[in-house]
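INFO  loader      accepted 1 record
INFO  loader      residues=165
INFO  predictor   begin
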Amino acid sequence: MAKGDYYLARRHPDGRREISWRLWVLIWVTPVVMLVGAGVVAAMADWKRQHWTVAEAEVTHVYAWDNDAPQIFYPGDKINSPRFRYTWSDGQPTEATTGTSHTGWNFALGSRHQIRFDPDTKGDVVLVGPSEWWVARTVAVLGLLLLVPSLIGALLLLRWRSRGT
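INFO  predictor   done
INFO  writer      dumping tokens
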């Protein structure tokens, strides 16, 4: 590539304006990657819904710590992470957490909840319900929010280019 081929946007001496493909990538890469990532995470959540085993589990312990997050996003004084006891695929009682936490998960000890677990590997479990989709939903919302500045930037660039001769 010649040295003059490295540009984001440029004006030619005759007044023409040109926008490099690199600038279009810079404008659109973040929202597109976020939306693709949301699709991947949603596909993973759906795969777990189809392939993991549903069981009823008993809460044996609730880990709790102070909530330092902004109350507008994560309301509540304490963040909770329950530990569940359930019967794994080998018939043995097993305990596990979801590996995540939430201010609304201050479940009573002994209470029973539906979970999903991997029948092939002991590890984190998934609490059945809306929390299965939290990560995918959050990443999708961020991607959609980032579409706004990308659209504004693209429109401004197209306007700039059209004002050239």
